[in-house]
């Protein structure tokens, strides 16, 4: 009988030692350090370069703008907007990997383009 209890204790210890801990906050392994633009405000039809600095392993990036155009990908994109996008525009960067995702936004003010003569 003692051998059975001893065997059960050993099995329970081995199972506990081999079980993988669940990460209760997957995105805690990813952090966005900064999200910056080279120009803000930007005149319509002009561009600004937006860069994200993030920490984590095997990071991937996704970008979305509520108005205007995004060119490029990864950690740096070019953002431009036309006359119909004048005002405050939101650009969102999503950083993700196998552990989760995190996002941040930057507001870019687009001002009217003026034809200087």
Strand content: over 45%
Radius of gyration based on Cα positions: 24 Å
Mean pLDDT: 85
What class do helices, strands and sheet pairing give?
A: mainly beta
Largest sheet: 4 strands, antiparallel
**Annotation, overall tally of beta strands:** 8
What is the domain total for the residues? 1
Count helical runs. Answer: 1
Gross morphology is rod-shaped
Low-confidence stretches: 19-24
CATH topology: Immunoglobulin-like
Q: How is the largest sheet built, in terms of strand order?
A: 1-3-6-5
Task: Give the distance, in angstroms, between the N- and C-terminal Cα atoms.
Answer: 99 Å
Helical coverage, percent range:
10-25%
SSE order in H/E notation? HEEEEEEEE
CATH class descriptor name: Mainly Beta
CATH superfamily: Immunoglobulins
Kindly describe this structure.
- The protein is mostly beta strands and 117 residues long.
- It has a single domain, classed as Immunoglobulins (Immunoglobulin-like).
- Helix content is 15%, strand content 49%.
- It has one helix and eight strands.
- Strands 1-3-6-5 form a four-stranded antiparallel beta sheet, with no helix packed on it. The protein has a four-stranded mixed beta sheet with strand order 2-8-7-4, with no helix packed on it.
- A hairpin with a 2-residue loop joins strand 7 and strand 8.
- It is rod-shaped, with a radius of gyration of 24 Å.
């Amino acid at each position: 009988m003692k051998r059975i209890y001893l065997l059960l204790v050993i099995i329970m210890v081995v199972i506990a030692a081999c079980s993988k801990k669940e990460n209760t906050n997957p995105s805690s392994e990813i952090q966005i350090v900064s999200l910056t633009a080279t120009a803000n405000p930007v005149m319509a039809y002009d561009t600004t370069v937006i860069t994200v600095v993030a920490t984590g392993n095997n990071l991937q990036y996704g970008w979305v703008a509520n108005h205007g155009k995004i060119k490029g990908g990864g950690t740096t994109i070019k953002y431009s907007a036309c006359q119909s996008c004048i005002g405050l525009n939101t650009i969102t960067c999503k950083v993700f990997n196998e552990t989760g995702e995190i996002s941040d936004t930057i507001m870019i003010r687009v001002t009217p383009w003026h034809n200087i003569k």
